[in-house]
Amino acid sequence: MNFKTTLFLLFLLAIVGAFFLWDKDNPADDLTLTQVDQTKQPLLKADTFDKDKIATLTVERDGKTYTIEKSGTEWQQTQPVSFKLNSWSAGQPGGHALELTYTEKLTPGKNGAPSLADVKLDKPLATVTITFSDDSAKQIFKLGRRGIGGRGYLMLNDDAALYVVNDDLHQSILDEDVTAWRSKSFKAPTEGQVNQITKIDTHGTLQMVKKDGQWAYAGDHTGRVSRDALTQILGAINTMFISEFVADKPADLTVYGLDKPSVKVTIEQPPVAVQKTDDQDKAQAVAPKPRYRTLVIGAPVDLKKERYFATYSDGQGVGDVVFEISKSDVEKFGKSVDDLREPSLTPIMSTDITKVVVSKDDAVTLQIRKSADGWGYDDPKPGYGLDQELAKSLVEVITDAKAVSYLVNPSLSGKPMLTFAIGATGRASDDVFKVYPNSDDNVTILRNNETVGYVVPREQISKVVDSKVALLRNRIIKDWKSADLKMVDITLPDAANTMLHFSRTDSAWKLDGFDKHESFAFGELLDAIAPLRVDSWDTQGPVGDDAYTITYGNDDATLTVKVDAQSRVAMLEQPELHFMVSQAFVDKLTAEIRPRTIVDVTRDAIQKVQVITKDQNITITRKDDKFTAQGVELDESKVGTLFDTLAGLRVERYTSPKKISRSIDVIVTTKDGDIHIQLSENHTGQIGSTFFELAEDDFKNLTAKMIQ
After folding, report:
1. d(CA 561, CA 251)
2. pTM of the predicted model as reported, rounded to 2 decimal places
C-alpha cells in the first residue's frame, strides 16, 4: 500500500466517524426507536418490587422447566426434582433480574435495530418467571443472545421493546446449571427430633426406636441403643459432602447400584398435626403423618471405590437426585449391632441416684441412701458416719462403667456373685443388676429383665464388687485444725530413732535442739495431719518396721499414727484403725523439717575453694570478685555456679551416719576457718558428724570440672 492510498483511507474513516457522531446527536424522529446511549436506566422501578419477597423463580431453557421456591430464607428446587439449594447462590438470579439496567430500548427490526430472530428472541434462549409473596405482579424475562461489553438482549413481560441490558441475569441463567445452585451438604434432624432410625447394610436391618426418651432395638434385635452413637449417625449425614451431581430422576437405578443399596438409612420424625382450614371443622385435625428422610448409598463410582453414588430424599425411597460422595463418608455408617448398643449399665444419671443396695449370697452387705443432708448409711447403721465423697464415687462407678462387649441371651447358671440395685428420683422401680463371673479380667452384668449381658472389666466395677460398710466410713479421723495443736512429735525410721519434738507457745512453733526449722515444710505437714484424712480404708498390708511415728495433739487429746512411707499403709493406735494415706501425705511427712542450710555463709565470705575429685585437684581463689587458679584457665561460668551453690548450701534431707567411701572433697575457706565437705557418688555427704543427702543439681554444681 502506497502513501497516497493510506491518506485516502484515513480521510474516508474520518468522514464515516463524523457521520456516526452526527447521527448520534441527531436521531431520527421515528418514535419507535429510543436510544439511551451508555446511560444505565433501571429496567424495573426500584421501589416497586422487593427481592426479599420473591416466592418462586421458574426457568424455561433447552426445552426443560426448572422451578425453585423460597421459604423464609431457605431455597428449594421443586421442579422437576426436589432438592435443597444454597441460599446465597439461589438468591442471585432473582436479585439480578430485579436490579437489571438497560442502555438501549429498541423497536425490533426498525431503524437499524436487530430483529428478534437476530438476537434469538423469536425463540428465547431462556425465559425467567418470578412471582412474589405479596401482591406484586409476576415478572417475565425473555433472554436473547449476548453482545459485547457485558451486554445482552432481553424482553420484559408483554413489552414489545427490545432492551440492551447488563448481562448479569444472562450469566446466571445461561452460563450456570441449576445444579450449581444446589447445596452440597445436608442438615439432618437432631437426635431429639427423631423417634426411629432404620439402617440396612451388610450388618442386616437395624431398627432403632425411641420410647420415653430412651433408644432400643426393635425387630430382629433387642437391647438398649446408644444415644451418642445415633447422634454420630445423624452427624455423619450433616458432614457428608457432595463431590458431584450425576443425574436427576434416572430412568435406570441399576446403573448406580441404587436398586440394591449398599447402605440405606431411614429417619422417622414424629407427625405434626395440621388443622383444617376455616371452612372446615376446626376441632377436627387432619390425620398427622410421620415425616421421613432417607439416605440411600449405591455402588462405587469406579473400581478404586473412592466415591459412591447416593441419594437423599424427604421420603422413604430413593431420591430424585443422584450424586457422588466419598468413601470416608460412606464408612461412617458402617456400624454393627454392638457398635450402636448403649455401653453404660444404666441410663440413670449419677446425680439422680438416691439409693444403693449391695447383696452377696442373698444377704445385704451395704445399703446407703441420699437425703437432703447428703448420703448416709441406711439401717442398720454402724457407729460411724459415711464419707460423702466415697459414696459419690461408688455411685459414679456404677454410672461410669462401660461394656467392652455384649452377650445376647447369655446362658448364665448358678447364683450371681453379686447383686446391686439403685433407686433414683422420679423412678417407680429400682434398677437391679446381677453380676456373674466371666473371666479373670471381666464380669457379665444383667440389668433388670434385659436379654443382653454387659461384659465389663472387673477393674471398672471393683469398688462395687468389693464394697463393705467399713470401706465407706468417714475419712476424717480427727477434725482438728492446725491452730488446735500444741505439740507434734515425729520419730524418724533411722538407726537412732531420732525424735523431733515441736511445741507451740502462742502462735510460734519451736523445734527442740534447733534455733529454727523449715517453717514452710512444717506448715505443710500440719495441714496434712489436721485434720487427719484417710485416702482409703482398703489397706494393702500391715505397717512395716521402718515406719514414721507421729504423735500430736493438745492438752485435751493426742493421736499417734504410724505410716509406712513405702506402702502408704498407716495405723492409728487408739482406737486401732488401718488405712491408706495419700502420696501427698507421705511427701509432706518425709520432707526435711530440720534447718536444711548446712553451709551458712555468704558468697562474699568465701575466700577459697578446693575441689578434689578423681578428675581434678584444683584450688580456686576469689579476690575482688575475680577467680584464679594456679597454672590453669578456669571455666568462669562453672566456677561462679560453684561459689553460688556453696553460699547457703542446703541439704535435701539428713541421713543416718554412713562411711563415705572414695570421697569427693570440697574444702571451703573463710576468714573463720575451713569447712570440709565430703561427698559420695550417690549424692550423700558428711560435714563433721552430720550426714545428709544433696539434690542432684547441687551435687553436679559442686563436682563439675572447673578447668576451661
Report:
1. 87
2. 0.73
